[in-house]
Design goal:
The protein is of the alpha+beta class. It has a single domain, classed as 2-Layer Sandwich (Alpha-Beta Plaits). The chain is 36% helix and 32% strand. It contains three helices and four strands. A four-stranded antiparallel β-sheet has the order 2-3-1-4. Helix 1 runs antiparallel to helix 3. It starts with a strand and ends with a strand.
């Protein structure tokens, strides 16, 4: 079974208070989900394309596990604050085992 990854790319901050609310809520969304935090706003260098304000990469056992977390009720509640707080790209990608 192939692992899966969700890549979040923050393109533009809009509302710091909404992002603070997202940060306060998102941790609870991982309860009951096996997730590996591969990158969380570390040093970055954009080699091609538009600048990014930040990047987060989450690892999951497979596509179904990644979707289960992303579509969970807890994450759906938290992400509404992310939508208000910043413009992001979020990409689900299958990887190698």
């Amino acid at each position: 079974m192939a692992r899966a990854y969700i890549v979040f790319i923050k393109e533009e901050s809009l509302d710091p208070s909404a992002l603070a609310q997202y940060k306060a809520m998102v941790g609870q969304s991982f309860e009951g989900h096996e997730v590996e935090f591969l990158a969380t706003y570390g040093e970055q260098e954009v080699l091609e394309g538009a600048d990014a304000q930040g990047v987060v990469i989450l690892g999951f056992a497979d596509m179904a596990a990644a979707r289960a977390w992303y579509h969970s009720e807890a994450y759906q509640r938290a992400r509404e604050h992310r939508f208000k707080g910043a413009r992001y790209r979020a990409i689900l990608v299958e990887g190698r085992s």
